[in-house]
Design brief:
9-stranded mixed beta barrel, 3-stranded antiparallel β-sheet, globular
Length: about 350
């Protein structure tokens, strides 16, 4: 009897092991990185940096976490909490807008920030910044003053006229530094299309339809930039190959962009990006910022660009923004009523709604 039970148990264990092994073998493995006709690794394709990981991390938080820790951090992310709270049918009687927060119209339908921490070199990461090791921007005193000034200027002049509105709201460059350098994630439209030729690379940024057209030269010694007076949006960039890595060096970022961050850059700032396609489904992307004015040391960030099969469609954000008249007209109306125009509490409101119960009730 005991022997029979042992054999049965052993057979069951073996069956489970075989099933598990078959499942592992059935999972697709990342294929080799393809090469272009000139022999260099091909970066061409559609990619995304969607993730709930951000550039910096709170003090005391470690850079690399376990999967369980990563899942918990992702679930606690405000965007994920909002998306979860709004799952299911709408409740027309939830009084969600009774506080007058029209920002809540920008609801979870529009959000697509990613649902997990970024995975870089097989590790779950809590920030893009890897140097310095604390995951913080190494701001100098002048850098700290610049960050504070940018916030103060925004609050003071936000509704004074079209030129005072933030650059993304004027549809000039993307939100949250998505256009680069370096290319950061935002709350939606985290997609890029890269078109590579032997002599140039074009990075089309879905958010606010930015496009970076970057010449590829023989090597670093051959790199030449234009005059500093030009200072285009997203900077003056030139690229070269170092083995299987495309290196992009950017200087002369437009002063308006550099003064307002999130990657704050003075006229002396330089950003060096490196893109290495590590498989058919992922690009390892890193960038280093050198700016002796705003930072006490060079700092470096790492993230992943993951392949997507979808196309990138036009983001219809028109320079000047068709909504500008409504934004400023509303501010003038408030002023005529003796109300000082202020920015709303944001899409989250206070507090973030609780998750809906079955049937749409809260």
């Amino acid at each position: 009897m005991k022997t029979g039970v042992s054999i049965a148990v052993l057979a069951g264990v073996l069956a489970l092991a075989c099933a598990a092994q078959a499942q592992v073998q059935a999972q697709p493995k990342a294929g080799p990185a393809p090469r272009a006709s000139d022999g260099h690794l091909s970066l061409s394709g559609v990619w995304t940096n969607a993730t709930v990981t951000s550039l910096t991390r709170p003090p005391g938080v470690k850079l690399v976490v376990s999967k369980a820790e990563a899942d918990a951090l992702a679930k606690a992310n405000p965007f994920q909490r909002l998306i979860e709270a709004e799952e299911g049918p709408s409740d027309q009687n939830d009084k969600l807008l009774d506080d007058g927060n029209s920002d809540r119209g920008y609801n979870a339908f529009w959000l697509d920030p990613g649902s997990s921490l970024t995975v870089v070199k097989g590790e779950f990461r809590t920030s893009f910044i890897v140097e310095p090791s604390n995951g913080q921007l190494p701001l100098s005193d002048q850098g700290k003053a610049r960050v504070a000034q940018a916030r103060a200027e925004r609050q003071k002049t936000l509704f004074t006229g079209p030129e005072a509105l933030p650059l993304p709201e004027r549809c000039l460059i993307g939100f949250s530094g998505s256009g680069g350098p370096g290319m950061l994630n935002t709350i939606y439209n985290n997609n890029y299309e890269i078109v590579q030729t032997p002599t140039s690379v074009v990075i089309v940024v879905e958010m606010v339809h930015d496009a970076r057209t970057i010449p590829i030269v023989k090597d670093k010694a051959s790199a030449r930039h234009g005059p500093a007076a030009l200072s285009p949006w997203l900077g003056d960039a030139v690229a070269w190959w170092e083995g299987d890595t495309l290196v992009i060096e950017t200087v002369h970022v437009n002063p308006q962009q550099g003064r307002n961050g999130p990657v704050f850059l003075s006229p002396e700032g330089k950003v060096t990006e490196r893109l290495t396609r590590v498989s058919d489904s992922q690009i390892f992307y890193e960038f280093q910022v050198e700016d002796p004015v705003y930072y006490t040391q060079p700092w470096r960030a790492e993230l992943s660009l993951n392949a997507r099969k979808e196309r990138v469609y036009e983001y219809a954000c028109h320079e000047g923004n068709y909504a500008m008249a409504g934004i400023l007209g509303g501010a003038r109306l408030q002023e005529s009523q003796g109300i000082t125009p202020t920015q709303g509490p944001g899409i989250f409101g206070t507090p973030i709604p609780e998750k809906k119960k079955a049937g749409g009730d809260r």
